[in-house]
Design goal:
This protein is α+β, with helices and mostly antiparallel strands. Helix content is 16%, strand content 38%.
Length: 220
């Protein structure tokens, strides 16, 4: 019955839906030169696009690179390594897109480390989509929220993508005033809670666990 009890306990934890799980996380430490315009998540599952796919812009080499990163918001002891850098006033209004799945999860939480140079982008607009075509605004990070040295930004919780098989977040930058002005992004973390099982499913799993335990006892 020990295994049965463990099964029931595990299902009970999943049913609460309170534990934050990593959906996708980018530390950007593997970036080289030239900087890849498709970047797979370092944990979880997801991909960043900066080459025109799913509502992203086509970034040029003088607009898109990588600089030294930070340990702020890093997961599992990751080193500072590298950070993604969006550069140049010619990139005002351009976007990168993160693609991932929220199937089985709810209440997306987004956090990341960022910094802005004095002439860098002073606006970071975040939008969501389920098809990579139609996007809807859910949070804006303004000049007063983008620090001059790395700091951590936490976006508003997003419920619109709950249980979405395909999910997209688009980040659009604006307000740079020189060719060298930039924003750095590092340790981008998407977390969400497991969607609780409905009572009927929970009861069914408990029953299955109990039946399995009884059958094992009868075979002894």
């Amino acid at each position: 019955m020990i295994r049965t009890a463990a099964l029931v306990a595990a299902v009970g934890l999943a049913a609460t839906g309170v534990q934050a799980e990593t959906i996708a996380y980018w530390n950007f430490n593997g970036l080289g030169s030239p900087t890849a315009t498709q970047i797979d998540a370092d944990q979880g599952s997801g991909r960043l696009y900066a080459e025109g796919s799913f509502g992203s812009s086509v970034w040029l080499a003088n607009q898109y690179t990588n600089f030294t990163g930070t340990t702020l918001n890093a997961q599992d002891g990751d080193v500072a390594g590298r950070s993604l850098a969006l550069v140049n006033q010619t990139a005002n209004g351009q976007s990168i897109v993160f693609a991932f799945s929220m199937a089985g999860f709810r209440n997306l939480e987004v956090s990341y480390a960022t910094q802005r140079t004095g002439t860098g982008f002073n606006s970071q607009v975040w939008e969501w989509s389920t098809d990579g075509v139609s996007f809807f605004n859910f949070d804006t990070v303004g000049v007063s929220d983008i620090p001059s040295s790395f700091g951590v930004v936490n976006l508003a919780s997003l419920a619109a993508l709950d249980n979405a098989e395909t999910a997209f977040l688009r980040l659009t930058v604006d307000g740079a005033s020189s060719v060298s002005g930039n924003n750095r992004l590092d340790n981008v973390l998407f977390q969400a809670a497991i969607i609780p099982l409905p009572p009927a499913a929970w009861a069914g799993l408990v029953m299955i666990g109990g039946i399995a335990g009884v059958r094992r006892l009868r075979r002894r």
